[in-house]
Structures are given as structure tokens and as C-alpha cells.
Amino acid sequence: MTEQNITPNGATVPTFCKRCSTNSSVINLRTEHLCSDCFDKYVRSKCIKRMEAYRVRYNPPDTDTSPRRLLLPLSFGISSTTLLHLLNSQLQNQLARTTRTGFVLIVVHIDESAINPTVPLAEEGMRAVQEWFPDVGEYFIVRLEGIYGFSNAVKAFEMGVEEEERRGGGDWREKLKGLLGALPSPTSRMDLLQILRTRLITELARKYACEAVLWGDTTTRLAEKMLAETAKGRGFSVPWQTSDGDSPYGVKFLYPLRDLLKKELVVYVSLEVPTPLRPLCFGAAEEGEGKKKHAAVGKGITIDELMTQYFEGIEGQYPSIVANVVRTAGKLVTEGGVVRIGRCNICGLPRDGGGGELVLDAKTKLGESSSGEVNGNRSGGKKEGGDMCYGCARSVHGARPYEWPL
């Protein structure tokens, strides 16, 4: 893959790298053309810069400091696979220089075959990835319905299940299908599905004593998330969902690829130097097929898919727009001085205080039917809207009868 210029007489000549002026260019990187070697250095530098806190000093430690544990969610997509590759290289360099590493990875893949049978086979994919990167740490596959196995997360997601059945465990897979099937729209289902992933991943991070979660979100993905969450009524959560640092879940959130565009990683995984990563991106083909289907049909597209189409469509010609959206999100801060009443029972974030008071129409309040009966709560308990943030209350509004097991 080499970039070329066309001369006035119609001949094509290769474009040379602006940095080394020796090799042919493979990508026009915003303002300059780069060859594969220089582009590899550029991508690595962006990731290493964000992982500065986990570097290894040359001086031996005075006390026994074991490597810090970091959790990396692996979806087999382009972004998370690239992040795993870059972190593996960083660990190898640390070992070569100092004979020790500054961190160890817990690589987790969330198996969603319970709700989507077309997803790549988790076992085969994880086995292949582990063969490529055997020394980064531990590998785990966790089924999405395993969220019901965590006592402090289960309460937010079980719907329409009697107390006796909950205590007995029940069929987690059927519970998950019933939850998503009760929701009123594709946007609601995708919204709660993303929340389920996040809650499960953070629960796993705490279980394995991880200091932080390393998300593979690029500049493009962070821009998509900012506008999507705002459109869904969860704009107050943008600082926690797009910024590096502490999260309300008890673990840090870090985004080492936040300075790279998705289109740049698409080129990177196809390079022959240092090694082609495209064969390991098992989930990338499925992502592309899904976007083509929704672009052609247009009906039933979710807010998240709409934002994905928009930003991946403009990042080629207008990368500065994508970067500006993320920089704007970075200026937002959480309102530490505002006293919030509890946490949202769905997303787990501090409530914005709007969910319980919002009136959607003349007869219906969130969590309350037009007859005054609380959804799924025949005992006539308190309104559920007051226990949700605005965005989550909108997501579950109109769902079939359910009961929050509070």
C-alpha cells in the first residue's frame, strides 16, 4: 500500500515520507505523508505517552513493588487489538531495558453469543490472540449474562423476575434476553447493552484487583460517545466516559489511543511492518457489515450507529472536527460541589437529579403508568423514575411491565 501522485502527463510517482525522505508514503497523516516505519513510530509514541505513569525506572526499587494490574477489554476489533499489540511491545521493551515490567495485563473478552449468535467464536479468537501475545498477562472469556453473578450489579438489570427465582439463580441467558426484549426501541437495547458491558468489565476489574481499565477508544470513538450520550440525555456523564482518571465505579478509566483516529488504525493493522495485525481483528468484518446494512436500510438505526456513521464519514476529510469534539469534552468537569442524591440504578453513575421529576406527557411519569401503578410493581411501591438518571429513565420508559428488585 503506497501513496502516489499523478503528474500532468498522467504518470504516477510515489509520494515519499516527509520525515525520513527515503521510503514511500503509506498514509497522509493529517498534515504530512509517512512511510510504514515512521507511521509505526508515530502510533507507538501516542500510546506510550498516555501510559507514562506505568513506565519502569532504571534504578532498582527500594521496596518490593509488584507490577500493577490493568484490565484490557478485548473485542477483537481493530482498536482493542491494536492497543494489545502496542502494550505488548511496551512490556517487551521494559523487560529488555530493566528486566522487569511496570504493569501486567488482564485481557478480558465479553462473549455476547447469548444475544448475537453471529459474533466471532470467543474461544478460537482468544486462542489465536494468546498465541501472538503470550507474555502480557492473563486471558479470560466472560459471558455477558455473567453480570447476574455479581451480587452488587445484579440488582440493576433483572426485570420481571420474582424474588424466589432470583434467589435460585434461574437461567441467566434467558434473563438477559428477557431484559433486552422488554425494552421499547433499538436505541434503548443498545444503550443498556453498553451499560451491561461497562458494569461487567468494572466488576471484573475489581475482582482481579486491577488499578485501571484500558479502553481501546480512539479519537473517533470518543467523539461518537460524547454526542451519542448527550443525545440520549446522559450528557452529565460525558466527563467520566471520555476522560482519563478516576471513575465512579471504583477503578480508573484510561484511553491510551485517544490521540489516534480510527482511520489511522485501519491503515496500521494492514501494515507489513512490524507485523500485520489484520488477521487478529476477527470482529472488524462484522462491524463493517452491520454499518452497511443500517446505512442501506436507514430504519431502526440507533443513535450510537448514527454517530458512528457520521464521524467515520468525516474523519477522512475533516479530522480536525473530530479532534475538536474530543477536546471540548476534555474541558468538561464533574460537578464536585453539587450534592447528588444517590446513584442511578441502571448506569451506576451519580444521578443528575432529573429522572424522577421529568414528566413525559400529561398522564405518565417515568416509572409510573397512566393508571398510577408502578411498572411491574403490583404492590404500588415508590416510583422508579426517582432512582434513575435522566438518560436511563428515558431508555426504559415505555418498556413492558418490569420490576426493579431494590
Automatic annotation (TrEMBL):
Pathway-wise, it operates in:
tRNA modification; 5-methoxycarbonylmethyl-2-thiouridine-tRNA biosynthesis
* Major localization class: cytoplasm
One Gene Ontology BP term is: tRNA wobble position uridine thiolation
Q: Which UniProt keywords apply?
A: Cytoplasm, tRNA processing
Q: Gene Ontology terms, cellular component aspect?
A: cytosol
* Subcellular location(s) of the protein: Cytoplasm
Q: Which GO terms describe its molecular function?
A: nucleotidyltransferase activity; sulfurtransferase activity; tRNA binding
The entry sums up its family as follows: Belongs to the CTU2/NCS2 family.
Tell me, in a sentence or two, what this protein's role is: Plays a central role in 2-thiolation of mcm(5)S(2)U at tRNA wobble positions of tRNA(Lys), tRNA(Glu) and tRNA(Gln). May act by forming a heterodimer with NCS6 that ligates sulfur from thiocarboxylated URM1 onto the uridine of tRNAs at wobble position. Prior mcm(5) tRNA modification by the elongator complex is required for 2-thiolation. May also be involved in protein urmylation.
* Name used for this protein in its record: Cytoplasmic tRNA 2-thiolation protein 2
Which source organism does the UniProt entry give?
Tuber melanosporum (strain Mel28)
